[in-house]
Amino acid sequence: MKLPAILSGPIIRRVEPSSVYIWIALSSKVEIDAQIFQIESSSDEKYQYIPLRTHTEANTFKAGDNLYIYLLKISPDLSQFPPCTLLGYDLILKKGRQVRTLGSYNLLNPENPRSIVYGNLKYPSFTINHESEPDNLLYGSCRKPHGHGDDALFAADVLVENNHLDLTERPNALFLMGDQIYADDVADPLLPIMTELGKDLVGNCERDKLNELIPENLIPRLDKVNGRQFLIEHLANFSTRKGDNHLISFGEYAAMYMFSWSPEVWDYIHEKELLLSFQQIKERDKLHLKMDCEKKRKKELSRLESRYEEQMDHVRDFVVSLSAARRLMANTPTYMIFDDHDLTDDWNISNKWTSAVRDSALGKHIIGNGLAAYWLFQGWGNEPENFDSEFLKQVKNFISSSNDSDGYMNGLNHLWDFHSWHFIAPTIPKTVFLDTRTQREFDPRPEGVKLGSVIEETTRTPLLISEAGWKDISQKLLQSGWKRKTPLNIVSPTPFYGMGLIESFLHKYVYPFKVLGFPVQTSFDFDGWKYNGKGFHAFISQVVSWDPSYSILLSGDVHFSSSVKSDVLFHSGEKQSFYQFTSSPIHNESFTGLWGVLMKSVLWLNARKRREQSLYRSCGESLVLALGKNDEKQDEQLLWEENINYNSFEDGNIAETKNSIGYLKTEKSSLENTLLMTMDYSESIE
After folding, report:
1. DSSP β-bridge partners for residue 62
2. Which run of H or of E encompasses 295?
3. Which run of H or of E encompasses 20?
4. What is the mean predicted confidence (pLDDT) over 387-416?
5. At 224, is the secondary structure helix, strand, or coil?
């Protein structure tokens, strides 16, 4: 059984008037070219496809025996691509005398359920706005195959389907803002698939690397469901509590991306019979039990069977949406930034975490694999010019060299020390994508924490962007052509403005348990913007120095959606308005069970408290964020103060916990934010 020729894609990536980038993953090496068409409508719903004179630069990266990543740069021969018109594209794949197009793989047939075209169009399409027309944006995060609920990318696909000819309503870009995969939280039925598919893609050389990093008696756990938590926790020094099936090899990371984006890979999985029942897992000795006592093992086995079957159901439901997800990304310029789960939970959450993982040969290797895969599948297409030939060489050396070689170690260190994952998307207005994981600064100042009569000093939460990071971001923004006194979009995986009551509750009643040694920072993700006043002040000050007319903040991460407006007044008299839109999750509803009841209650209380009043917050010279007017601190000079208003959705709530993806458009100088949910299109599903 051969791997499919097209493993994943095509995905349309960075798009601007002077160039269009298209990403595709293939199982063999080919010569590849592209053709761009200007699409003009005529009578009777027929269209003319006018070929544009272009030239294609094909960038190829061989990532494994059967894994070739192509990033095509298509540029117009004359001037620029026409704005405010529908553009289509096709790919031409040549191997020897054989010449194929996307139509050769039945991807352009509207009758095919897996077609990547909308309506009666002949090709996948996209549009480039005039610089005076703001882009319509889709934005979201957190998509896990075995997550609860419906995949919101289906709803986004339906939106494009319904508006593919209406350029005023059609989305111009898709922002995926973190946790595009969950490397740490892998479903039991998927682990055997990831290991086998990873080997088929990359080859068997990776096992030799792992044999040197893992004790011989623990190697068998790599091939067993539920067997990796000990390796991840005690050898790699990770902190995730869901690492039973954690991705480890580069091939496994690559396989997870394939599975998440490609319906053809699912066919391959079926035909190769890689999806096993729980009974088959047991019979083939592919299940690890942690308990020694026979009675406890029976209980553990029963629990694992129940978990396996539940996750199997969720995975099967997820697979239904794969064609919609692929079609959406084939027709919408897509920009992506990582958060922690793309590599592992709590990635770089503290200086202690980062140091411990870097000191572990296995931990450092896994992070290297995650970063290499992120670059190939997500990062490369965001701002291709950011990655020079030296970067490609270092990644190649890391992937293909043995552990004891200089090439491997140099490549691994290069990935760990690379801090230019941030980028500016050429949207209208421009969008700054922040890297809040590798540009961190760990605050060395001790912080006093009180729990009852116990008072201790502990480490502070990190600054999500360091001073050097802000300088690099500012330089890229200025080089992008963005101008002062115009709007600016800023993407941060974690929100700048969340639900104040939830955050205050956690910080006031949960964070103090840190003094007793409880791992509250990794348990409750105390690494948001508001948990370090110095870092939040740096963000506010940086944006004010850029001087946009207003700023739109787009985020995910927190598994609920919200809309917030903040008006900030500096002591110097400068003002800035921020519009925070958060949409999360795309496919990973988390507010279930007892925890869900608790969090929904907090959200309800928060809504009751915030609906009829604004929230006042200030920051003084001590860089502590203070809620409410505080007469006791009148002697401290305020640096700035802000009024935060929580906007309600149509149902009156200020937060939504269902799977959704945001759709933001500017309508007559006002911002219109809509949450798209698959449940709204239930008739279409049926």
Report:
1. 68
2. helix 294-319
3. strand 19-26
4. 96
5. coil
